[in-house]
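Ligand: magnesium ion. Inputs:
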Amino acid sequence: MSTVPAIKRLDQTVINRIAAGEIIQRPANALKELIENSLDAGATQIQILVKDGGIKLLQIQDNGHGIRKEDMGIVCERFTTSKLKKFEDLSQIATYGFRGEALASISHIAHVTITTKTKDAQCAFRANYSDGKLVSPRPGVSADPKPCAGNDGTQITAEDLFYNVPTRRRAFKSFSEEYNRIVDVVSRYAVHNSAVSFTCRKQGAATADVQTSSTSNITDTIRQMYGSSVASELLHVEKEFPQSEFKMNASFSNANYHVKKMTLLLFINNRLVESSNIKKSIENVYNSLLPKGSYPFVYLSLDINPRNVDVNVHPTKREVHFLNEDRIVDTITSTLQEQLEGANFSRTFYTQTILPGASQVESSPSDSDKTPTRKVQEYNLVRTDSRARTLDTFVQRPEDELMEGIVNTEDVLELDEELSSQPISSQSKKRPRIDVQMTSILNLRNAVKKSEHTGLTNVLRDHTFVGCADDTLALIQHKQDLYLVNFAVVSEELFYQVLLAEFCNFGKLQLTSPVSILECIKVALDVEEQQGTLPDQLQPKDTIAETITDVIVSRADMLEDHFSMVISKEGSLLALPMLLKGYVPTMDKLPLFLLRMGTEVDWETEEGCFDSLGRELAIFYSAEPPVEPVDITADNDTARRQYKQEHEKYLWQVQNLIFPGLKSQFIAPASLAREDGSYVTRLARLTDLYKIFERC
Ligand code: ADP
Ligand code: MG
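Predicted complex:
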């Protein structure tokens, strides 16, 4: 006798059960199919009721067109569908499901009850199903659909999911996890169908976990489902690409929003699907906008000519593929990128492209879906580690040792006389840090946070310094992008923020000889007068200078306590706050600063005073090159040499103190992201430059 086992044909119900188990792996899969059927039936209201994570009970009630009584006998058989009559229809089908397998599958692994009423029927009918067939609800009762009371529409109940597949049933660890998946599916369909009202609740619960109204628009629905922090940072785009035969409709977060995990709601031809290809490509779009390890929210709905979508995929194989996929995905990503770059706040530093080859894919109506040629792998060619060495580290720095000495000195810093002709030395006293809790300062700090432009913050925080282009512009690199930064403007903001952050805790820059405030202000007034910027005044200049000096001296205590500005009773300035260790502002600006303390600072209110004085100090400290001597004659040699030295020191401070300062805790305000890109400008994407080099 042969020991080889005979091959037996499996029983048909077993085959069906196995097939069903492949399609319906968990309650959320079943619900997805049921929601799709309701939407296919034209429902505008869908109510879902769940018990034990959907395993005990999954019920969905819709107000769609219902099922005719004569069809009730076969709705749960495999390959019965009202949506597909001939094989050729497969290529035209535009509804969600199209294979007539969902209800059949569910009836193989659960007890299904359908109650349904079409508009013109007198009453509703109810029927029970098992293994694809009508079954009798109780022994001795006919299995035929029975008339009953009911509203227009369909109610489908699936009970005891996987009652006949014990291994699958045991695999569910927690009801709440299954329930969360259900809520997730409902939320996604609710967003995609914002004109349909959805509710979803647990049986016995007083309130629904999902409740949307049919009058909401997509932003409202996203707010309800995913919170207002994302809803208020959304961009929208709707575009058709006739050549590639597809339409896209997207709502996606801008650079101000980011979270630890990407939320991607992807619908293709109204079916909730997954595509790792699309997901990765979208991640790449946001890569340069968001901090490392943070992700956007993206709702993307594609209408692709059904002819081009692979209809032979398994109905629940959620990972989809379609014809010309790469080309379509590229079109999608460049459309998103375009919108993100064009967004009002980002426009500044993302749109301006100067170098050839750096421009984005242009879109004109006729060829708007031209395939961009960017290759992702090229990113790897670019050095993007902001800790990496820059060009300048290979070039000899001016006064290297001297400068390093200043930065590294822990306590008292004496500026070398030869290095700096400025009568100043810096000092930071060791004293316990004061934790400032003044409402005014907290308010001002909050205002800074509120105005933040996160995209720009990230660029500055993770940048690599490339080099100074001139006295006010420097090149930095962030990821694959090269930016031109106006550091005169940016540093002013930096110093203002340092003033708020370190309020009451500054070290002191000690002036080696006292400076007369009165004389300084007189100098400033003379300059103003020469430049014709002094308004027609009522008082003589001297009187103005005296009044301002009095104002400043009378505030000496406050100025010392809060700003580390030391002023003697006689009206001499003895010390200034040390905002960045080792940084000395250009002293040419001191007279104007003192004058503006009288004209620009609001001495009336606490918050106003801290804010306006902070601003003035920031203007004073902001990077501004030393004034070049006008007179270039031979006997002016010393002045020139001195200027040269100061100028070198100036650029050194910019690179070694200001730009590192931007990396630590700087919050870029939206005001820096200006319309005309004059403050921070994206020059080029390095990958594009590489392409140019490759061609050479
Ligand atoms: P498919 O959706 O692929 O056609 P299903 O097994 O999901 O297959 O559904 C079978 C048929 O049952 C559908 O074609 C439709 O005619 C009918 N049907 C299912 N659910 C509903 C519903 N909620 N309202 C109206 N008809 C429905
Ligand atoms: Mg279906």
